[in-house]
Design a protein that fits this description.
- This protein is an alpha+beta fold.
- 27% of the residues lie in helices and 32% in strands.
- It is built from seven helices and 16 strands.
């Protein structure tokens, strides 16, 4: 990528995320990226971090010619430029299917530059593009009776895919009022409010009853700390640093987490920090932690 001719099919997959540098610039960059012929991209901003992903993976390829491919790289770089340096990670990739070959491109970040890494191979039967049935024809050319037999199997496959991808667990996520809150070393310095919507948990952090609003109050809390962890929590509060908001099961296993910073609480008395976490039927409590609960693989 870019290629010398227009592909007959285009697939765009993956995600790009990072920490926001300028949200207005970021929104403009994503809007321009959506005009490049590779389909539209959705932007989500949560707790100072953002992610973008394609709204559709199988995209009409008629507008993704050489010029559009080059423009796509420029607009993708503009997205990276709107993020804090060194914060961007991506699994974004695309597959261009041509008449006789296929080009598979993975976009990587080198320093603060987005770079395409492309592998070309001959086109195979697995790269054939499914064409919509002509008007009046049964799906895939099958008769009504065959479709009646196939429908239950498709339903089972759909439910299996939904279960494996976690959608069923999200739909069955525990209600917000059933999920406990544990602030750990932060004690009453931070208040935690949890809401559930469409299979996700939305966690809002605000100043708590013992939040140190003055340097003197912060110094007192430091002096009263009885553990290193409590002292570190006070330091984090005092500089508006980063913590991890986690959803865990009854055994304490972290099911989902998000890293966010408390700078807004430091600068605004009524400030609110909001984090979105994936819902789960096993959710037991939401907790605040100084370190990640996810184990590296």
């Amino acid at each position: 990528m870019p290629s010398s001719d227009t592909p007959t099919a285009l697939l765009v997959e993956g995600i790009l995320d990072g920490r926001v540098l300028n949200e207005n610039t970021l929104q403009t960059a994503v809007a321009e990226l959506s005009k490049c012929g590779a389909g539209e991209f959705r932007l989500d901003v949560t707790g100072g971090r953002f992610n973008i992903l394609p709204t559709e993976t199988h995209v009409p390829a008629d507008r993704f010619d050489t010029a559009a491919q080059s423009n796509f790289l420029d607009r993708l770089q503009a997205v990276v430029d709107a993020a804090q340096q060194g914060s961007v990670e991506t699994t974004l990739r695309c597959k261009l299917v041509f008449e006789h070959e296929v080009a598979e491109t993975l976009f990587i970040v080198n320093g603060h530059q987005i770079e395409p890494v492309t592998r070309r191979r001959p086109r195979t039967a697995q790269d054939e593009i499914p064409m919509p049935a002509a008007e009046g024809e049964a799906m895939l050319g099958m008769r009504r009776r065959e479709l009646i037999w196939l429908a239950p199997a498709l339903l089972i496959v759909g439910l299996l895919i939904a279960w494996q991808s976690g959608w069923i667990d999200r739909v069955m996520a525990a209600r917000a009022e059933q999920v406990l809150t544990e602030t750990g070393p932060f004690g009453q310095m931070i208040d935690v409010k949890l809401e559930r919507s469409w299979g996700n948990y939305y966690v809002t952090l605000t100043r708590g009853s013992t939040y140190p609003a003055t340097p003197e109050a912060l110094a007192t809390l430091r002096e009263d700390s009885v553990t290193l962890t409590e002292g570190a929590a006070c330091e984090l509060i005092g500089n508006g640093g980063e913590l991890f908001v986690q959803i865990a099961n009854e055994d304490g296993k972290v099911l989902a987490e998000a890293r966010t910073e408390l700078r807004l609480l430091l600068t605004e008395e009524d400030g609110k920090v909001q984090v979105k976490l994936t819902g789960s039927s096993s959710a037991h409590h939401v907790s605040l932690s100084l370190s990640t609960g996810k184990k590296s693989k």
